[in-house]
Every structure is written in structure tokens, then in C-alpha cells.
Amino acid sequence: MEALIVQLRRLQETALAELTKISATKDLTNWRVQYLGKKSELNALSKQMGGLRQEERPLFGERVNEVRNALEAAYLERQTALAAAEQALRLAQETIDITLPGRAIGRGAIHPISRVIQEIEDIFLGMGFSIVDGPEIETDHYNFELLNLPKDHPARDMQDTFYLSDELLLRTHTSPMQVRTMERMQGDVPIKVIVPGRVYRRDEDDATHSHQFTQIEGLVVGEGIRMSDLKGTLESFAKALFGPEQRVRLRPSYFPFTEPSAEVDLLCVHCHGEGCRVCKGTGWIEILGAGMVHPRVLDMSGYDSTRYSGFAFGMGPERIAMLRYGISDIRLLYQNDLRFLAQFARA
């Protein structure tokens, strides 16, 4: 038994000496496994108790427990000391120097599309218009039929549609709010509204087209509304948005819900009518579609077309933003590239 007692004493001395060399709490686990684990030398020595005489076993067992208790107490003491030292070091490293200058917070910017929509809204609000909103999931009844586009109308092909069911669809324009507004007004006049919002069409995304984009529809209804009122309104809008030298040009066109209909051009904002690459030498750039509200649309919406008339127009804020800021690819407006968007913090 004397030899075993000597081994226990040496084991204790070695273990304690190794423990004092440990300088990080993460290394304590290996020490604990080596000297106090199931496969440790101390455990192996305790198993030799069976080979001792009956009267020697209690003494040896007591000695084994003393060594185990001493090692566990030393382990806990060392663990506490190292944890306290590491915490003190961490606190020292995390001390804030209040004399250092603060970090600048990066400025955000209004998205170019949102900026253009806000400018257009401000212009029309100043002209006495109201802003209305409507559902993006629309019915075929409002999106097409009440806008003079019955089920078999060939003009439906002009707007390739996302159908959700036979009757529900993602609106292809904000024009349904023409009808909804006239129904809500129940024959009262005047009506002067604009309708900004997202619209959806089954279009291939490229530099000038997107399957989702924004549109601003305008509607005026009253007695004695003429085509000249439409041109005057759009001319005032163009001058407010692009400058007092701006002019508009109307060209005959076709839309099922207006008659007569027109494409509206502006003087090229790049060459001011001189002719350049952007306007393909014409001096004009197409900006929106417009026309007098079709009598059938008025009648179906509860207005007597023999007494009342009106005009409507629709424009794309993306198109205007691309002209305003010289953007050549519409996809840049939707890719959320901070390198692109950061430029508008200074715009």
C-alpha cells in the first residue's frame, strides 16, 4: 500500500503543478479530464483497492478521497480566478473612450420613383386634384368591362394580364379607379383625381420594360370639358415638372376607354427640341397617353354622356425618372443596388 500512497502523493503534486500553468479557462477542461475523469490515473489507482488487505482498504480509500477533494477544490479555485481575470481584461478592452469622435450615420435617400411620384402629386394637388387609391387585385369587371373592353374585345391583347382566377387579376393599369371613383361620386361633379399605384403585366423584363411598374392615372369629369382642357392641364403639368420652356404635342392614337385618344409628347429634355440620340432626332419624347373619356364609360359609370364629358390620362413615373435622371435601364430602379441609389442622396 505504501507504493500506492506514494503514487497518489506524486499524482497530486503533478496535477497541482500543471494546474498553476493553465492561463485560460478553455484549457481547464483538458486538465479536468486528465486528472479527474473516468479514465484518469486517479481513477485507475482507486481501482487497485481490491488488491489490498481488508484492513488497508479504508485507509487507502480515505487517502484517494482526500486527493480527489484537493484536486477538485484547486480546480474550482483556479477556474474562478481565471474567469475573473478574463472578465477584467474584457471590460478593459471594451472601455469606451468618450473623447473619440462619433461615427457618422449614413444618410438615406428617397427612391427616384418615389421622388417623382411625390413631385407629380404635389403638382396636381396644386391644380385642385385629389389623390385616390385602389386595389391591386382587381376584377375583370372593373379592369376591362366597365372600361369599354368586353370579354371578346381584341384590345385586351394590348395588356397581357396576370389572371388569378376567371374573374380576379392583377390590375394592368390604374384606370379601374376611373370607374370606381365615378360610381362612388354617384353622378356628382366635378371629379378631379389622380391615381398613383403599382400595375402588373406579363412582359419580358429588359432595359425599357418590367412586369411590375407604377402608373399615375388622371381623371376629370364635369360639364363642358373639352380636349383643349386636357391639353392645357398637361401643358401646365409639363412646365411645372420640366421647366417653363417645356411644350407638349398631341398625336392621334387609340385607347378603348377614351375617344378621341392621343399620345402626348414633350420637347426632348436633353436637346430641347434640337434632335439628339435620345429622341432619335425628332426633338420630341413620348411621355403619356390621354384622351376624352369614352361616352360608353361615362354611361356605364352612371353619368349621362350627353350632359357630361371628361378627360383621362396615364403616365409612368419610371419613364419620367429615367428622363429626369438620365437612367438608361429601367431594371436599375428595382435592383436595390446601393451604389446606384446612393447617388440620389445628393439629387
From TrEMBL:
CDD domains: PheRS_alpha_core. One of its GO terms (molecular function) is ATP binding. It catalyses: tRNA(Phe) + L-phenylalanine + ATP = L-phenylalanyl-tRNA(Phe) + AMP + diphosphate + H(+). Coiled coil: none annotated. Keywords: Aminoacyl-tRNA synthetase, ATP-binding, Cytoplasm, Ligase, Magnesium, Metal-binding, Nucleotide-binding, Protein biosynthesis. GO terms for biological process: phenylalanyl-tRNA aminoacylation. Its EC number is 6.1.1.20. Its cofactor is Mg(2+). Belongs to the class-II aminoacyl-tRNA synthetase family. Phe-tRNA synthetase alpha subunit type 1 subfamily. HAMAP family: Phe_tRNA_synth_alpha1 (MF_00281). Tetramer of two alpha and two beta subunits. This is Phenylalanine--tRNA ligase alpha subunit. The gene is pheS.
